């Protein structure tokens, strides 16, 4: 199994490295700068596959390609609370994050969603 050691830290750069290999190749990619969450995202090829906005329930569902569903309250995203349903529905799913072009303060990443999920699950706080 090939091993790649890089100083690249962002997911897009890692994906570019992996693009040099065949689809079914298994490759070990290591970066001293990657967080454990980023490493898990890359090695498990995690992506946001679908986003469902339910304004009436104050809920956004982020569905991952491994069938995991991450549920968040709309009110947890700066700028989305007062957004119309049209604005809420106008998002771009980038796979590694979701962008709201009309409300850039609401953009979120897969990494931050997973990090928040772990903090909630284990009732941890960050100062």
List the helices and strands and how they pair.
Blueprint: E1 3-6, H1 11-18, E2 28-31, H2 36-43, E3 48-54, E4 59-64, E5 69-73, H3 85-89, E6 92-93, E7 97-99, E8 108-109, H4 110-121
Parallel strand pairs: 1-2
Antiparallel strand pairs: 3-4, 4-5, 6-7, 7-8
How would you portray this structure in words?
It is built from 4 helices and 8 strands, in the order E-H-E-H-E-E-E-H-E-E-E-H. It is of the alpha+beta class and 127 residues long. Strands 3-4-5 form a 3-stranded antiparallel sheet. The chain has a 3-stranded antiparallel sheet with strand order 6-7-8. Strand 4 (59-64) and strand 5 form a beta hairpin. The protein starts with a strand and ends in a 6-residue tail after the last helix.
Q: How is the largest sheet built, in terms of strand order?
A: 3-4-5
Secondary structure category: alpha+beta
Chain-averaged pLDDT: 88
| Number of discrete helical segments | 4
Series of secondary-structure elements, N-terminal to C-terminal: EHEHEEEHEEEH
Proportion of beta-strand residues:
25-35%
Roughly what percent helix?
A: 25-40%
End-to-end separation: 41 Å
| Extended strand count | 8
Bulk shape = elongated
Low-confidence stretches: none
Radius of gyration: 16 Å
Task: Describe this structure in a few short sentences.
26% of the residues lie in helices and 26% in strands. The protein is α+β, with helices and mostly antiparallel strands and 127 residues long.
Structure keywords:
elongated, 127 residues, 8 strands, 3-stranded antiparallel β-sheet
């Amino acid at each position: 199994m090939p091993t790649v050691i890089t100083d690249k830290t962002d997911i897009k750069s890692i994906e570019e490295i992996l693009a040099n290999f065949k689809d079914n190749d298994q490759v070990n990619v290591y970066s001293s700068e990657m967080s454990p969450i980023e490493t898990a995202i890359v090695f498990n090829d995690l992506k946001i596959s679908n986003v469902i906005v339910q304004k009436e329930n104050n809920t956004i569902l982020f569905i991952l390609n491994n069938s995991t569903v991450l549920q968040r309250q709309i009110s947890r995203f700066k700028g989305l609370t007062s957004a119309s349903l049209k604005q809420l529905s106008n998002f771009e799913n980038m796979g590694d994050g979701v962008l709201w072009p009309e409300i850039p303060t609401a953009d979120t990443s897969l990494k931050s969603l997973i990090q928040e999920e772990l903090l909630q699950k284990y009732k941890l706080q960050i100062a």
